[in-house]
């Protein structure tokens, strides 16, 4: 039997080590935040973030993620969700006068959803199995990391020519792979595939291909004398 974990279905992909601020306003998720804050155990105060598949977003919002509301008007089932998620550890909680919360979380560990339960608690829960922690990156990942970093710098310079390109980057290839996945303007499905990658080397290889593809598209668009907004591929909503 797996672990029972409270989960938030969101329209974004959370990666280990990345910060995710959320505005919580629906009562059932307020209950979850209050329970996490009141927990007295030694373990982390965390819940699962699982990405909603496209087409399952509904008009009535339950949480806001960077201003984009998503919810489950009908009961959420496993079919609504991607099967790999990441826990979000509470780092900061601000309760507002009307009972809503502004929280800051950090991605912690990956898991796979085995089943979803909508009725056992006020909020959604899932039975999950923990995915193995990624061990120290191997020689292949060490060799790929500088190439991926160079591709990321090129991509960001093309995307935002007037802004400063990354100056401080992580030395660890695994941390770098998560940063790239969260930074690049990729589709929801592409980010989800990167989260579910079995190891750092696989993720970095995929990111190198994606960054080179995106940089090539941006370079071609910039060579055409029309506004970039008229030709650029629509950005991911994440």
From TrEMBL:
Domain Lon N-terminal residue range list: 2-215
Domain of life according to the entry: Bacteria
Endpoints of the signal sequence: none
Protein's UniProt name: Lon N-terminal domain-containing protein
Source organism (scientific name): Krasilnikovia cinnamomea
């Amino acid at each position: 039997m797996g672990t029972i974990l409270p989960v938030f279905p969101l329209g974004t992909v959370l990666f280990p080590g990345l910060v995710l601020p959320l505005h919580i306003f629906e009562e059932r998720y307020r209950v979850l935040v209050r329970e996490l804050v009141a927990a007295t155990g030694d373990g982390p105060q965390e819940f699962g973030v699982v990405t909603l598949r496209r087409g399952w977003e509904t008009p009535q919002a339950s949480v806001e993620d960077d201003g984009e509301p998503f919810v489950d008007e009908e009961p959420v089932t496993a079919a609504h969700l991607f099967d790999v998620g990441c826990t979000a550890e509470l780092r900061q909680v601000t309760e507002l006068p009307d009972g809503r919360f502004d929280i800051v979380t950090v991605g912690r560990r990956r898991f796979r959803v085995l089943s979803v339960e909508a009725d056992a608690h006020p909020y959604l829960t899932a039975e999950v199995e923990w995915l193995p922690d990624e061990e120290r990156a191997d020689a292949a990942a060490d060799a790929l990391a500088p190439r991926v970093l160079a591709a990321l710098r090129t991509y960001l310079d093309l995307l935002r020519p007037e802004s400063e390109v990354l100056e401080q980057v992580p030395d660890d290839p695994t941390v770098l792979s998560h940063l790239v996945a969260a930074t690049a303007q990729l589709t929801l499905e592409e980010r989800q595939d990167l989260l579910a990658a079995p190891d750092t080397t696989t993720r970095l290889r995929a990111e190198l291909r994606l960054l080179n593809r995106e940089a090539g598209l941006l370079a071609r668009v910039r060579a055409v004398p029309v506004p970039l907004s008229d030709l650029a591929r629509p950005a991911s909503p994440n």
